[in-house]
From TrEMBL:
InterPro entries: 6-blade_b-propeller_TolB-like (IPR011042), NHL_repeat (IPR001258)
A Gene Ontology molecular function term of the record: protein serine/threonine kinase activity
Pfam families reported for this sequence: NHL (PF01436)
Stated name of the protein: Serine/threonine-protein kinase PknD
Keywords: Kinase, Repeat, Transferase
Keyword hit for Magnesium: no
Enzyme Commission code(s) on record: 2.7.11.1
PROSITE patterns on file: NHL
């Protein structure tokens, strides 16, 4: 039968005309192509060109040309390959072949930075913005190689590629790009060292430096903050840090530590008493605590103390040597770690406190109240979170293991001989139990249910359970504060009332329900079955027979016992740890209670009651706003203390001479060149004037009237003013604290607002009322009548020109810390409810009482800030060569080359102004 041309053939009795099917093949470069027609007749093709199927089809028959087998590494497609034969050969079937290509892709994991660019085969770039899958836009020809690399790393991370090379024989989906955070070192150089200095980064990483360069051991992640401070300078030197704060984007080698001699400057007690709160380690009464709460002993006689306002856990040996076991004073946080690298957020309030307990292995457990967690500290000081998860102050409730559990203001903790921990979960009104593996269950009570019902487990109820204790039989005792009772829980969780009667508040000794308690808070059990309870007024003893007696007149939040039957009390208000023998003899084991009084006398025989402001006159006398005594005191240059105006304990608003006058919580004082004394009489909302003859008058404001009205004398009004200063023209400047303004009073008593807008808190610089402040307390002036302001809750120092133009001299609003530096690089930590002393020397340097850091800062006219007295976050009093130690300094004044400052209930003097 002829092929093509429409030649006929005979089948049976007639002739059938047939036609061929064919076309052209293009782009073919490999073997293996097989075409097929109508699903049956195959035609191998080996080269580009024309082709014709061997089988012809009858006129009118349908045809369908397909690719039966693709060539190696290519894909061929058929065009014009189907139809019906119409009296002609089909010659225009087009088969087009092209190389097969495959996509290349994979997954990216742990990407947090920006800017990651991947590249394939050195040319195809792909930007990746998040973890997940990716695919390059350009495919790779079959059999050819792909090569995926990182063309650009993301910020703060390093990404690596695995499975990124090979031949492409199918779509590639297994390329893995893994990213990890970069870490960077913090370091710099030191100069002027005559001995070793201890530097600290971020409140926990300590480094001893004696050479010219240094690098901290702990690297930081990209984007983390660093804050390098001098923890302990060399003896007799003052050290400052430049470039010590910032955000990590690369290795930091530019921190500068410069140490200079204190040039004979020294600090000494001038008058009063400096005992009181602090954060000093040491022996016995040389140590300082700041509102200690929980106390517990271990088997070797060591005591452990939750030092609440310092946010640290302290250790006291049997020889009364006090050290800091864990945490860093002044740092509130939830970091696990070793020693000072860990952080706590302990609590002390009217109805919650942080307790401690020990187990037989020497571990310490802490009710980390504000973090709503239970922490564990090994004997080596390694801190972990045993249970709970730090969160908001409200907390929550959930049983579970470790961080899955939730607490609400956990307070007291106790352990049994099996290593279980019992927790007074105060906010939830229940008692929790934690196994050594960290599994938390509810031991007694029902979360959120307030009551006084005895019963088993959830059938019982409590009303603000605080302290918990255990005895040798694994009974648990609870100070049920607002029920005014002591509860007992058996190992089987059976709750009974051991002593007191729910709802009956009093202090009555007796047996069982006949006894009465005055808000019991702390509790501890001794080895003989006695229970000791601290309440608002004293410490009580409850025998195993429920006989209640008064054990000692001292009290506090926490109580602990040792194997010898001694009782230890965390005397919270006085900042000391008391020891009570079984015979009831009370001694102070560690810490030093503040001495408060109003006695006149010389040096330390004169006493004060929380003084605030200081001022000095041309004769070298120092005037003290003795705030809680409601008087103004005078200290001569020979340190003789007398009462200049007012009568101690008689608060009022009377004008008069000497003792006939009265004040109400005076905070700030200032003097003028004529020897007059001006007083910010805070609670009276007035500014008072005292002549050298002690005649007291009201210069401006009206007693008891809060406002922001400008005017003359009593027509003006103030809102709890706390600071005053004068200039050479006799004008008085007032830190009108709760109006957040700075006021000016002329010698004629005309009051105007120099800067700030009453009732508007902020940190805006500007002129007059366009500027804003936030609770300013301290003011001072220089010889050019510029006013300097310690701007309380902004943590900055501001400057106001005589024209009322306000600028920020040092610090950054809203940024709290202790960093030295220039201008905005410096940091302060102002306690707003404390007086912020500020003074200006004849050289134009500004000195600021950075009370939250327990330091005195010096600011040059160019805004360069250094720490000249005290060590940041180490509160106490250390006389002698600078830097010394201070405890929450407040008022300051400069007389010649001597700086006077208030620390504790005393006045200290610093000679040879640094």
């Amino acid at each position: 039968m002829p092929v093509g041309g429409g030649s006929g053939g005979t089948t049976g009795g007639g002739t059938i005309t047939t036609y061929t099917i064919g076309g052209t093949v293009s782009g073919l470069t490999a073997a293996g192509l097989v075409l097929q027609i109508n699903g049956g007749s195959n035609l191998p093709i080996s080269a580009n060109g024309t082709f014709t199927f061997a089988t012809a089809l009858a006129n009118g028959a349908a045809y369908n040309v397909t690719v039966f087998a693709q060539p190696n590494g290519e894909t061929c497609t058929v065009n014009s390959g189907s139809g019906v034969l119409a009296s002609a050969n089909k010659t225009n079937v087009a088969v087009t072949c092209s190389s097969t290509s495959f996509t290349v892709g994979g997954t990216v994991s742990s990407l947090t930075g920006t800017g990651l660019i991947l590249q394939d085969n050195g040319a195809d770039n792909l930007s990746v913005t998040a973890s997940g899958s990716f695919t390059f836009a350009t495919p790779v020809a079959n059999g050819t190689s792909y090569g995926v690399t990182v063309y650009a790393q993301p910020t703060g991370q390093t990404c690596t590629v695995t499975g990124g090379t090979g031949p492409a024989t199918a779509n590639v989906t297994g390329v893995a790009v893994s990213c990890i955070a970069n870490t960077y070192t913090i370091g710099g150089s030191a100069s002027g060292l005559t001995g070793s200095a201890v530097l600290q980064n971020n409140g926990g990483d300590n480094l001893t430096v004696s050479g010219s360069s240094f690098t901290f051991a702990t690297p930081l992640l990209y984007g983390a903050s660093y804050n390098v401070t001098v923890l302990t300078p060399p003896a007799g030197e003052i050290c400052s840090v430049t470039g010590g704060t910032g955000t990590v984007t690369a290795n930091v080698a530019s921190v500068g530590v410069n140490c200079t001699s204190a040039s004979g400057s020294s600090i000494a007690l001038f008058a009063g008493n400096i005992n009181g709160p602090g954060s000093v380690d040491g022996s016995g009464t040389s140590a300082r605590f700041n509102s200690p709460t929980g106390v517990a002993s271990d088997s070797t006689g060591n005591l452990y103390v939750a030092d609440a306002y310092n946010n640290t856990i302290r250790k006291i040996t049997p020889a009364a040597v006090v050290t800091t076991l864990a945490g860093s004073a002044g740092i509130c946080g939830s970091a696990d770690g070793s020693g000072s690298a860990a952080s706590f957020c302990l609590s002390l309030s009217y109805s919650a406190y942080s307790g401690v307990a020990t187990d037989s292995a020497g571990n310490v457990y802490v009710g980390d109240t504000s973090n709503n967690t239970i922490r564990k500290i090994t004997s080596a000081g390694v801190v972990t979170t045993l249970a709970g998860s730090p969160g908001g102050i409200i907390g929550g409730y959930a049983d579970g293991a470790g961080s899955a559990a939730r607490f609400s203001s956990p307070s007291g903790v106790a352990t049994d001989s099996s290593g279980n921990v019992y927790v007074g979960d105060t906010g939830n009104r229940i008692i929790r139990k934690i196994t050594p593996a960290g599994v938390v269950t509810t031991f007694a009570g029902t979360a959120g249910v307030v009551g006084s019902t005895d019963g088993t487990g959830a059938a019982a109820s409590f009303n603000w359970p605080l302290g918990v204790a255990t005895d040798s039989a694994a009974n648990v005792y609870v100070a049920d504060m607002f029920n005014y009772t002591i509860r007992k829980i058996s190992p089987a969780a059976v709750v009974s009332t051991l002593a007191g009667t729910a709802g009956s508040l009093s202090t009555v000794n007796g047996t069982g329900s006949a006894a009465r308690f005055d808000m019991p808070v702390g509790i501890s059990a001794d080895t003989t079955g006695n229970v000791y309870v601290t309440e608002l007024s004293d410490t009580r003893k409850v025998t195993s027979a429920a006989v209640v007696s008064t054990f000692a007149s001292v009290t506090g939040y926490g109580a602990g016992t040792d194997s010898a039957g001694n009782v230890y009390i965390a005397d919270t208000a006085n900042g000391v740890i008391r020891k009570i023998t079984p015979a009831g003899i009370v001694t102070t084991l560690a810490g030093s209670a503040p001495v408060i009084g109003s006695a006149n006398g010389s040096g330390s025989t004169g006493t004060f009651d929380r003084p605030s402001g200081l001022a000095s006159d041309a004769a070298g006398n120092v005037y003290v706003a003795d705030t809680f005594n409601c008087v103004i005191r005078k200290i001569t240059s020979a340190a003789v203390v007398s009462t200049f105006a007012g009568t101690a304990g008689s608060c009022g608003a009377v004008d008069g001479t000497g003792a006939a006058a009265s004040f109400s919580s005076p905070w700030g004082v200032a003097t003028d060149s004529a020897g007059n004394v001006y007083v910010a009489d805070t609670q009276n909302r007035t500014i008072r004037k005292i002549t050298p003859a002690a005649v007291v008058t009201t210069l401006a404001g009206t007693v008891g009237v809060s406002g922001s009205t400008n005017g003359t004398g009593t027509a003006a009004s103030f809102n709890l003013p706390q600071g005053v200063a004068t200039d050479s023209a006799g004008n008085v400047y007032v830190a009108d604290t709760w109006n957040s303004t700075i006021r000016k009073i002329t010698p004629a008593g005309v009051v105007t607002t120099l800067a700030g807008s009453a009732g508007t808190n902020g940190s805006t610089n500007g002129t007059g009322t366009a500027a804003t402040f936030c609770r300013p307390t301290g003011v001072a002036t220089d010889s050019a009548a510029n006013v300097y302001v310690a701007d309380g809750c902004n943590d900055v120092v501001r400057m106001i020109t005589p024209a009322g133009v306000v600028t920020t001299l040092a610090g950054t609003a809203g940024v709290t810390g202790s960093a030295d530096g220039t201008g905005a690089a410096a940091q302060f930590n102002f306690i707003v409810n404390g007086h912020l002393g500020i003074a200006v020397s004849s050289a134009g340097n500004i000195y600021v009482a950075d009370n939250g850091n327990s330091t005195i800062r010096k600011i040059t006219p160019a805004g360069v800030v250094t720490t000249v007295i005290g060590v940041a976050q180490q509160a106490g009093f250390m006389p002698g060569a600078l830097p010394g130690l201070l405890a929450y300094p407040s008022g300051m004044t400069i007389s010649g080359t001597t700086l006077y400052l208030i620390t504790g209930n005393g006045v200290a003097s610093v000679t040879n102004l640094p």
